[in-house]
Design a protein that fits this description.
alpha/beta, 20% strand, elongated
């Protein structure tokens, strides 16, 4: 049955209020600080009475906090900012031997962190462990699970979006994206998603000041992955497998056997690849950083198999920046110099290599950032007059 003109008018009014409310919240996020009503009106091109009404409604629902004026002269006005202590998200990095979880506010500020390492692969224990760590973080900041509005779990391997299967990740158990959502998303208001770790690392590198819009991001430790960023967006490929260069087959220079590139160039094998197995990777890089020419040569030989594969990608896609994250990003400038020289030797000229400032937390920074964005999406969807409150919105997952 068609609605009456009055019904259509009411629906139109509700939609307009929702759009205006989203504009106010978006302005507050962009500003990154509490704003006066006059400032919000200027930023949103809305009238001051409209903004004042929206602010009053959001404050009444405990979405906004009132900040008393600090000025003493004239007629100081109150400022309003998001109630960051009410909404939180979680980011998690689920590796074979390391699990780390952070709880963050919607401004990205980290409020609690838990990290666990284990020599045997964590495997199917991972989901239970992540759930425990999330609850411990919430307890630390005095929040219930109902305060969670989004979460992102990073996993090595290919996350196949249509089915939620995760492949190419030995030692990490058989859980899939749907099981992650079921285990961690029960009380989360918005989306709980599973993302490839290297893609999240690339997203984190996009936030580094001065980073170009197009680059190749290596996630390099005991495992190997990569994210391809084109014009500011992570390129995932048809089934999410873009960047999985660790699955390339080649002859291992040490054993002569055909193995995956990931197995050949894992961080602790660099001295063996370079011909000096007597030292650790840390000792080799430290000696090269100190100016030892032989160590610098050994390091170049150690990174050569990976440089050969990356050089081909850089040449084909005309990429001129390579970022290096993961455990090996703790290395010094000698690693960057060695990798750049081997890239040039394989035909990739004028390629700049950069170590991640986040080191082995680069994936986690991407996971938290992704969850913050999802949290804001939840907030914009639920800010209307008939919207639900935290813990009651529909839960979704990237399946």
């Amino acid at each position: 049955m068609a609605g009456t003109p009055i019904d259509d008018q009411v629906r139109g009014t509700v939609r307009l209020r929702l759009l205006n409310t989203r504009r106010v919240l978006t302005a507050l996020r962009k500003a990154g600080r509490p704003l006066r009503i006059a400032e919000l009106a200027q930023m949103t091109a809305l009238t001051r009475p409209t903004v004042a009404q929206i602010v009053t409604t959001l404050e009444g629902r405990d979405y906004l906090r009132r900040h008393e004026p600090t000025e003493t002269a004239g007629r100081p006005a109150a400022r309003y900012g998001l109630a960051h202590d009410r909404f939180v998200v979680f980011g998690a990095d689920a590796g074979a031997h390391r699990a780390v979880v952070e709880i963050a506010s919607l401004d990205g500020a980290v409020r609690a962190r838990r990290e666990r390492r284990d020599t045997p692969p964590l495997g199917d224990r991972m989901l239970q462990m992540l759930g425990e760590m999330v609850r411990e973080c919430l307890d630390e900041v005095g929040l219930s699970s109902g305060a969670l509005v989004a979460g992102t779990v990073a996993s090595p391997g290919i996350v196949h979006e249509p089915t939620g299967r995760i492949t190419l990740r030995p030692g990490l158990g058989d859980w899939n994206a749907a099981q992650v959502v079921a285990a961690l998303g029960e009380d989360v208001g918005g989306a709980v998603t599973v993302e490839n770790d290297a893609n999240l690392a690339a997203q984190a590198m996009c936030t580094v000041p001065g980073m170009p819009q197009t680059f190749f991001g290596l996630q390099w430790g005991q495992r190997l992955g990569a994210g391809i960023v084109l014009d500011g967006r992570v390129y995932r490929g048809r089934f999410g497998a873009a960047g999985e260069l660790g699955s390339i087959l080649l002859t291992d220079p040490v054993t002569g056997h055909v193995r995956h590139l990931e197995e050949v160039v894992r961080a602790d094998r660099l001295p063996r690849l370079g011909g000096d197995p007597r030292v650790s990777t840390e000792e080799l890089v430290a000696a090269a950083d100190a100016g030892d020419r032989r160590s610098a040569h050994v390091l170049q030989q150690g990174v050569d198999p990976l440089a050969s594969a990356v050089a081909a990608i850089c040449v084909v896609l005309d990429l001129h920046t390579v970022t290096i994250s993961g455990a090996i990003a703790r290395s010094g400038p000698a690693l960057v110099a060695a990798f750049q020289k081997r890239l040039e030797a394989h035909g990739a000229i004028d390629v700049e290599c950069r170590l991640s400032p986040f080191h082995e937390d680069t994936v986690l920074r991407g996971a938290v950032g992704n969850a913050v964005d999802a949290g804001w999406e939840w907030l914009l969807e639920t800010c209307g007059p008939l919207a639900s409150t935290p813990g009651t919105a529909a839960r979704t997952g990237d399946l």
